[in-house]
Each structure stands twice: as structure tokens, then as C-alpha cells.
Design brief:
two-stranded antiparallel sheet; mainly alpha; 328 residues; 64% helix
Length: 328
């Protein structure tokens, strides 16, 4: 706030254990170049002041956007930028200190993060990291132990009950840190540990994804009449990125987000046509379509007839539900 005094406003949007997200709103009158320069100087100032602190600091910066509505895009940019910087730092530290263990731990952290978004890939990626540890026989046992600690920490943070077998497997490895041998039983222990723990973590991630889908569907049911309802607005409410919500929607509902929303709106429009005297245009607006033309186009796509034809058929006493859109 002191740095941007009279230049802009700073807001702490979210505060996590290892991550602080700042929204910097530059006031009008500053060009894009000037704004970028200010933010670059701001980052330099932060890193300068943290030099003597007992923490390691990296800053990821998102692109500049004109509208506050694009904050999710800027956050995505910043997260990607931060990841690149962390990869660079990990690589530099490995070259400088030959810290192979830290590099493997960094890779495992990325695998655990990816697993929460794509449960099906976790075990394979993790095993690749573990297999690469065998190239360093002296360090491999320490790498294995560090990986176990990271996975058990993740399980604890997810509030998943730790199984006795996992603790025993960790003790077995901890009791023998001698260089890895050919056909070493510790490799089998590590593989068994990975398979059982990642199965539990993946299962948890799948349940979390399903919970996000259910929350999104409930939000659609409540606010489908709002024409501004979109993937971005729903993902913000769910507390996840729009790309992530889109991806898991396709996983659980192959139709995807937009098609699900349009089908739901179409079904609600049919109910209004059967229970009210509202005009076609009024019903289109009430069900979230931004124009009568768009309403007619979408309705015909899913019902194989226009709203007018549907209403006429119903008034004629024919089967009104014969062309219902299937809601998944």
C-alpha cells in the first residue's frame, strides 16, 4: 500500500500458507508501460526487503488487464509465471549444490498438485520420478524417504486417515539408508507404498471434482435466468479456475458446461410455456437467453422445433414431452 500510494490500490485477495495473492489496481492516467514498470519495481522492492528474512521468496506476475472481471485470467498467468520461476530456481539450486534430493522432491510436489486436477495420471507420474532415483544409488534411499514424507504430509493435509501399513513401510526404509542394491527390496516397498497412497489420494481428488460439479449444477439451477451466467462466473463461485471446471464437466458430463446450461434453460422454458401465458420473447429472457433469436436458435437445436411450434403442438393436445432434452 505504501509503494502504490497515489498510484493504485492493493488488495490481498487470498492468503494461503505458502502463497499470497495480491490484486493491484493501477489508477487511470498511467500507460501500460508505466504500469508494468511500477509492478516490476514493486517486485524488486519485495525481494530486496526479504533478503535478510528466513524465507525463500519467488514472485509470479500475471499480465495486465483493463477490467476487474478478468482477474481470474491474471491469476492464471501469475500462477504459470510462478511455476516457471520455481522450476528455474530448483534447476539452479540443483546445478549449484548438486541437490538431487531437492529436485526429486520438487517433482513429486508437482505430481501431487497435478493429481488433484487429474486423478488418473498421479501414480504413473510419481513412479517415473521414483524410478529416476535409482540412477543415484547412494542418494536413492534418502530420496525415497523424502518422497514418502511428502505423500504422507499431503494425506494429512487432506485429512485422510493414515494407514498403519504406510507408517510401517516408512519405518522399513528409514531403518536402512545404505546405497541401493540390484533387486533391492526397498524398491518393491516404495512401489507398494506409491500404489496404495496414490489410490487414496486419487479417490479423494475424484470426490472433490464431483463435489465441484454438484455445486456448479446447483448454482445453475438457482441463477439460470441470469443471462450473464457463464463458465467464468460459476467457476469463481466454486473457487476453481474456469479451465479446470470445464475439464471436469466434460469428464463427468460429456456434453460440457455450455451445453448443460443451454439444455437446462431449454427445459425451464418448456415448463414456462406450459404453465404461463408469457410470450416467447418473455420466456426467453426469463430463462437467461439474451435475445429472442438466440432463444429460438438454442431451443430448436435441442428440441428439433421452435418454441412456437412446441407451444402450438402442446395446445393441440399432443405429447409435449416427446422431444425433451436429456439432462445428464
Amino acid at each position: 500500500s505504501n509503494f502504490f500510494k497515489n498510484k493504485g490500490h492493493v488488495c490481498c485477495l487470498e492468503d494461503k500458507k505458502e502463497q499470497k495473492i495480491l490484486v493491484i489496481n493501477i489508477i487511470k492516467g498511467y500507460s501500460t508501460t508505466q504500469s508494468k514498470h511500477m509492478i516490476q519495481e514493486f517486485v524488486k522492492q519485495i525481494k530486496k526487503e526479504s533478503n535478510n528474512a528466513s524465507i525463500s521468496l519467488e514472485v509470479g506476475v500475471g499480465r495486465l488487464y483493463k477490467h476487474i472481471f478478468d482477474i481470474a485470467l491474471s491469476y492464471k498467468d501469475a500462477k504459470s509465471n510462478l511455476h516457471q520461476r520455481l522450476c528455474l530456481v530448483a534447476s539452479q539450486e540443483t546445478e549449484q549444490k548438486n541437490d538431487i534430493v531437492s529436485l526429486h522432491c520438487f517433482q513429486v510436489k508437482r505430481v501431487l498438485e497435478d493429481t488433484m486436477e487429474n486423478p488418473g495420471i498421479g501414480l504413473e507420474q510419481l513412479q517415473q520420478v521414483v524410478d529416476s532415483a535409482a540412477d543415484y544409488p547412494v542418494l536413492a534411499p534418502k530420496i525415497y524417504l523424502s518422497i514418502m514424507n511428502l505423500i504422507l504430509d499431503k494425506i494429512s493435509s487432506l485429512k485422510i486417515q493414515c494407514e498403519d501399513a504406510w507408517v510401517q513401510q516408512r519405518k522399513q526404509l528409514e531403518g536402512d539408508l545404505s546405497p541401493l542394491r540390484e533387486n533391492d527390496t526397498r524398491e518393491k516397498i516404495m512401489r507398494s507404498f506409491n500404489e496404495s497412497t496414490m489410490l487414496v489420494i486419487s479417490s479423494y481428488a475424484s470426490k472433490e471434482q464431483y463435489r465441484h460439479i454438484e455445486n456448479a449444477k446447483k448454482y445453475i439451477e438457482m441463477y439460470y435466468s441470469d443471462s450473464s451466467l457463464s463458465l467464468n462466473s460459476v467457476s469463481d463461485i466454486c473457487g476453481i479456475s474456469s479451465s479446470y471446471l470445464s475439464r471436469i464437466f466434460v469428464t463427468y458430463l460429456p456434453s460440457g458446461f455450455v451445453e448443460y446450461l443451454n439444455k437446462y434453460r431449454t427445459e425451464q422454458a418448456k415448463i414456462l410455456m406450459l404453465t404461463t401465458n408469457d410470450t416467447i420473447a418473455e420466456i426467453g429472457i426469463k430463462t437467461g437467453f439474451n435475445s429472442p433469436q438466440n432463444f429460438i436458435r438454442v431451443f430448436k437445436k435441442y428440441q428439433s422445433e421452435t418454441p412456437g411450434q412446441f407451444k402450438a403442438r402442446c395446445l393441440a393436445g399432443k405429447d409435449c414431452m416427446g422431444h425433451s432434452a436429456r439432462m445428464e
